[in-house]
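Appendix B. Raw example, untouched.
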Amino acid sequence: MKLLIVFMALVSLNLMFLIYQGDMNRFIRVQSEIKSIAEECAAGASLYYDEEAFSQGYYLYDKKEGKKYIDYVLARTFKPPLQCSYQIHYREGPEEPDPGIQLLLTVRGRDWFRLGFLRVEEIKREAFYEQKGYG
C-alpha cells in the first residue's frame, strides 16, 4: 500500500511539473507577442506627426491619429475574452532633442496558468520608440 501511495504522489508531482512547464512556455510566448504588439503600436503611432511644427524645426506628434492607429491595431489583435488597455506618454517639443513615444500595454483576461496555486490574469509590457536621428 505504501508503494501505491508513493507512486501516486510521484505521478501527481510529475504531472504538475509538466503542466507548469507547458503553461510557462505558453506564458513566455504570449509575453513576447504582447511586447511586439506594444512595439508595433508605439512605432506606428510615431509616424503621425504635426507637419507644420516639423517645418518649424521641432517634432510634435499627432495624438489623435496615433490613438486611432493604436486602437485599430489592438482591436484587430485582441479578441473579446481578453481586455486590453494602454497608457501612452509622448516625449516631444522644442526642448526635446530625441522625441519618442512610450506605451504601456496591459492585457487582462483568463488565468494564464492551469495550476490552482498559480494565478496570473494580467500581463503588462512596455515599449519605447524614439526618433533617434532627429536631433
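End of appendix B.
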